[in-house]
Amino acid sequence: MQREMKLRHVALIMDGNGRWAKLRGRSRIEGHRNGVKRVNEIIDAALDQGLQAVTFYTFSMENWQRPRLEVNALMGLLKDFVKKEMNRLHEKNIQFRAVGDIGRLPRGVQKVLSEFEELTRGNTGLIVSSALSYGGRAEIVHAVRRIMEKGIAAPDLDEKTIGDHLYTVGIPDPDLIIRTSGEMRLSNFLLWQSAYAEFYFTDVLWPDFSRKEFFAAIEDFRNRERRFGGLKAEI
């Protein structure tokens, strides 16, 4: 008899907006706009599943290399989404976290993100994180620098110390990482935290990634067995 896999945190690499738009003869910006619409649907699905956390890979450190027009449009979409949805999501008792090099974002975006975090700080429900100007390697470097600045001695350094200085402190490590659009790589996402995560790859492009697709990924996860380096349990 197989035991059900425990699922607390799902992280999503939202890929395929540009390809979705190209297939339809539309601009990349239109692809991103349709991708944003999926975020609310997946947040609501995560609430229905009773998850503790969901993290969206919204804007990577490498995304700064994209054309300025596209970057500006992405920042505008992010700002508009937060302003429009923060009160609705607050009423659902979610906690919002922006994780990454937030100081690099435009001031107007930083302002609305800070307002969203402050509004939901006392909530006790689903933790919704948006990885922004984020890179897994940069996060680890940032954590090490903070540890050094505090003067923590080498003999006192352990995995917990590093974890306590990551952007994601207080959020459980992801149990499941979903990537859309058929690509099969992490792309510098949650490198430390994903040490024992399960992965789910789908050819579905992000703007088409529905609640049904999300539930299919979770069902696939629950049919697996996680051993964390140990042996299969005898039942």
| Number of structurally distinct domains | 1
Question: Strand fraction band?
Answer: 5-15%
Number of helices: 7
Q: Average pLDDT across residues?
A: 94
The side-by-side strand order for the widest beta sheet comes to 3-4-2-1-5-6
The class by helix and strand makeup works out as alpha/beta
CATH superfamily: Decaprenyl diphosphate synthase-like
Number of strands: 6
What is the CATH architecture term? 3-Layer(aba) Sandwich
Could you tell me the CATH topology label.
Undecaprenyl pyrophosphate synthetase
H and E order = EHHEHEHEHHEEH
CATH class category name: Alpha Beta
The backbone outline, from C-alpha atoms, is globular
Overview of this protein structure:
Helix 1 crosses helix 2 (28-48), helix 2 (28-48) packs parallel to helix 3 (68-91) and helix 3 runs parallel beside helix 4. The chain has one domain (9-137, 174-222): Undecaprenyl pyrophosphate synthetase, CATH 3.40.1180.10. With 235 residues, the protein is of the alpha/beta class. 41% of the residues lie in helices and 14% in strands. The protein has helices at 17-23, 28-48, 68-91, 107-120, 136-149, 159-163, 211-222, and strands spanning 9-13, 53-60, 95-99, 127-134, 176-179, 198-201.
Features:
Undecaprenyl pyrophosphate synthetase, alpha/beta, 235 residues, six-stranded parallel sheet
Structure summary:
With 235 residues, this protein is α/β, with parallel strands linked by helices. The protein is 41% helix and 14% strand.
